[in-house]
Write a structure and sequence with these properties.
alpha+beta; C8orf32 fold
Amino acid sequence: MTRPPLRATVVAGAAVLLAGAPVAAVVAGAGWFLNAAVTVALVAGVGVALARFGAAPVAVGQLFAAVLLLTLWFTEHGVLGVLPGPGALREMAALLAGAGQQIQTSVAPVAPTPEILFLVTAAFALLAVATHLAAVTEGAPATAGIPLLAAFAVPAALADTLLPWWTMAAAAAGFGLLLLVGDRPLRGVPGAVALTGAALAVALAIGATAGWVGTAGRFGGGLGDGPGGSIGLNPFTALRGQLDESTPAELFRVRGLPQAAYLRVLTLRDYVPDTGWQAGPPDLGIPLTGQLPAPTTPGVPASIAIENRGFRDYWLPLYGVPLAVSDIAGEWIYDRGSGTAYAPSRRFEDGWSQEALLPTPSTAQLRTGTGGDVPRRYLDTDGVDLRVAEIAADVTADASTGFDKAVAINDYFSSPGSPFRYSLETATGSGDDALVEFLTVGRAGYCEQFASAMAVMLRTVGVPARVAVGFTAGTDAGAYRSVGTPDAHAWVEAWFPGAGWTTFDPTPLTDGRALVPPYVSAARAEAARGSEEPVPEPAGIDTEPLPELTPDETTGEEAETAPEAAGPVGDEGFPMWPLVVAGVVLLAVAAPVAVRLLQRRRRLDVVSGGGPDAPAAGWAEVLAESADRGVPIQASDTVRGAARRMVRDHRLDADVQQALRRLVGAVEASFYGGAEIGDERLAEDVRLVRSGIATASPLRTRDRLLPRSVVDRARRHTDDDD
């Protein structure tokens, strides 16, 4: 077989990247394109180097090179860092499973997590191999359009709105480029240019007129003349997807808010046992930009300006009770019953102004208020397990009013002595009623479980309740409050005569994001007769405990550094140089990776073996893991100081903090003498801390290639020698 023209290989690779442009609509950031470009270049280089051996060896060689690249970039257990052994294959399977879960629980564009980047990189590798095989090796460029169609169709199906015009134009250009691949491509240039131009024109026309590409579902029935269909997303699925994002994103900047307050997006009225709270269709409402009903509840007036940085939905986030909303499109409708504003399709508003009333009822008003009524549907408990009602009755046995019952249930979940804890990892069910299991067995979950449980329990004791979904107060940035994806939250709104819907938050958050309303604080103070119960210190290290992370202590994301661009593609007279260069690059890159793997294995072997050196070896590995993921520890830091830095900068959760406390205690004991922990517990604590750091701070591509713990150490040694 003769070697294919280098030009054909380059054109085929460019066609793959252009056809994949719509990926930009479903994956945030530009990191995915770097991965795609490097992968396509590697596949093209191997294709040129192996072309003389025939189609099958070319495809096998390209796939093998792609697997080596995936192993190097995305796994930690590859043999010599690049060969896919059993451990690396398991990691790849876990990455694929994680990517599937993120696609199911996130709204496009999804965060560029390691799982998503792995999926994108593998997909581009397969597309590049298939396109090269069809267009270059077999000389059938038209056939290559079939795999390229997947690069366009899949993002179009996943995107929530119309694809950007430029992505459609780029994809059309990619298909057109394939016409330049052939034995005598220059003869086909005029026709290819004409056909590509026509394709671009059609793509732009479709982009300007069609609204159906990538659109999602709409509301369910019951909106009068509104569109039919069903809402396309469970609100708790979207909430969980935001909380799981490894790269937090800012959504709003809020100015003029006189006090910290929750930002409501929508409320949930209907509870379905073993399924949860559902977003039903809102009632017919009135134009949001028109005259809104005057509230009858006491509160603090506020003039609020909300700058939208990245939120698009059917629902318009609002504070408190809206008095007037301006600077938005006229499609928004306000439903006073649910306290929400909605539109018939997803919208992105640059920002809006809101006149709001932030309710401030007193405990006396909440206990003795009169007047008003609420629909009976907010008391519906059909299908709720009787055991839930029994638990609620026990919790509120000493409460005489609806408000005191609400405070009692709130404290049941969030008081210092409560057995419940916050965790994104909920307990696995055993087949019993999900809510009963949460209340009696699991007792761990995130805001969905706590808000759902409290709202149901309130209904069983005669207090109207619903679940609100939105955002906590965010972070004070000085001139404004910043609200982002980590602030996604759910809480409870209970209804009381004369006061209306009143906020309660039963989720036991420990990071400073939860708000305790003044009326709840006042009720607790009354119950304690003016004295505050001391909060017990966590078990473990008994002096200077590690700090809990607050939003003000978060650090900005470091800018991703792209690897240096490769040199120009070689001449056809030197067919083997791409393979030689690739081999040299792989060896150079594998060296620091191999050093890091050997260090990790040696340290963990010492930890597993136990003995006096085990704590120091485990601590050294934790420090290296932290340095690799962007948080190097200074040589002047004490062990406790280093631990506090890791908690703060990696945003470690409570379970990981406890393991880190025990590890610090073991290290200090090994240094200075004292009580020791068992070898098995030490190994488990080291594993938990490493896993917690890895989960909170995913490795970037550069850091996978050049582990900081190895590179920085070598640099320090070089500086010392100088």
